[in-house]
Amino acid sequence: MSAENSSSGSESTPSRTPPSFQDLVRDAMRQHKHEKESEAHQIFRNAAGHKPKGVIPQTVNPDEETVPGIEHPGSTGVIYCSDRAMANGFNYANSHEWANLGQGAPEVGPIPNAPSRPDSIPMPVDSLEYAPTTGVKELREAVAHLYNDTYRKDKASKYTYENVCIVPGGRAGLSRVAAVIGDVYTSYQIPDYTAYDQVLSAFKRLVPVPTALDIKSKYKLDIEQTKKDIRTQGLAVILASNPRNPTGQVIKGHDLKELVSLGREGTTTILDEFYSWYIYPEHESGYGKSISAAKYVEDVNQDSTVIIDGLTKNWRLPGWRVCWVVGPKNLITALSQSGSFLDGGANHPMQLAAIPLLDPARVALEKVALQRHFKAKRDHVLARLHDLGLDVDLPPSSTFYIWLNLAQLPEPLNNGLVFFEELLKFKTIVIPGIFFDINPAHRRNLFNSPCHHFVRLSFGPPIEDLDRGLDAIGLVLKKAKRNGSANFGHGYV
Ligand SMILES: Cc1ncc(COP(=O)(O)O)c(C=O)c1O
């Protein structure tokens, strides 16, 4: 059965037949302004852990007994989207028939002019033991060396292995860091990486303080305003992804220098730099440059700048679960303690296998190859979106995400969650913008979210997948032109 056939039967209703009562109701629904009247939003609210706060306990099946003391934290947006895709027929066996522009994963196969991909892992007997919770010393040294070589050649203060903690993935790194943040105001911005929502709400001591970034100022973090907030609100910690997921914008140069300087004035700055190589230069001379706060840190043990990165995106090895946190020695000892009860450390053989991948000469080749390949994909997707009449307000200068504003489309297609559900009918996954509206209290009407009209498209996958997804977007838009929008917003499985 084709994707088109698998959608609601009402799509084939000739437009000349008089409107039925159901059609009238649907027409009225198109005017809806509250999530309660949107089927796509109600499906989301009914998934365990996604009810507005205060409506607990929550279970997967409301008829089931609740488990005493257990509360669903809510899955991250990306996982919710995969679950919805599975409900619509997606599975790992048929995933090649789908275009997954949702999951934030880079393609992992060979790309032109990059060093060959690792294809086997040695397993010396020692590697069968636990690794230390801070990681294998040689890998910590290799990480420190890479940062010194790339960003700190001119600095007297250099990172050593004692400034590096190896962690089993970026989210494990974020959780280890969040677990050691005390009873303080922790600032984050909207929109940003979806997992911050759960991470910030799971560790109850810290108090999350959101700041909304505005498209009018190109989603730029206002450093002067941040300095004021530090003074007036007493912010102690600032968390941001840089380059930023999902907007594809980056804090660099003077702004990054200023942000890092906050770490010398009593505010801890946590920079999640998972996309630090995904920088798309305008000129040939720009290839091979990456961006990190490490360039602006003066004293590696005095400046409270914390950097999180790893093999997941830059090395295109998300399955390895080998990542790191770089920061003052005193932070690393705290992370060793939180790791000792949170995750127990990264996989030992994979840590050993990672060491040669951090060789600066190899990294230099990887970076250029990756930037050329992903820039070409970005330009291709932007051009195809333009042909579909979907120009991007703010094309990404970094990451592999496009933050697409749907506000110009007819209702209800102009809301990210409905657009997502409609694309599932055509075997394509994107991520509705609301999942980047980090709102740990889950209290508001989702229609009021500043991210309501957006979806995030990933150009991480290979170009064939991107084209399949773009074809699907074209089909949804064609369907809207042909039949109007009455057929959208309902009939979801
Ligand atoms: C900004 C950012 N940080 C961290 C991660 C997570 O990394 P990992 O998959 O290693 O947990 C992601 C993944 O999407 C991300 O986008």
Automatic annotation (TrEMBL):
Cofactor(s) of this protein: pyridoxal 5'-phosphate
Annotated GO biological process: amino acid metabolic process
Compositional bias annotation for Basic and acidic residues: 24-38
Pfam family of the protein (one): Aminotran_1_2
Low complexity biased stretches: 1-20
Region of interest called Disordered, as start-end residue ranges on this chain: 1-38
Transferase keyword on record: yes
Keywords: Aminotransferase, Pyridoxal phosphate, Transferase
Aminotransferase class I/classII large domain location: 98-473
GO MF term set: pyridoxal phosphate binding; transaminase activity
Membership in a protein family: Belongs to the class-I pyridoxal-phosphate-dependent aminotransferase family.
PANTHER family: ASPARTATE AMINOTRANSFERASE (PTHR46383)
Protein's name in the database: Aminotransferase class I/classII large domain-containing protein
Organism name: Asterophora parasitica
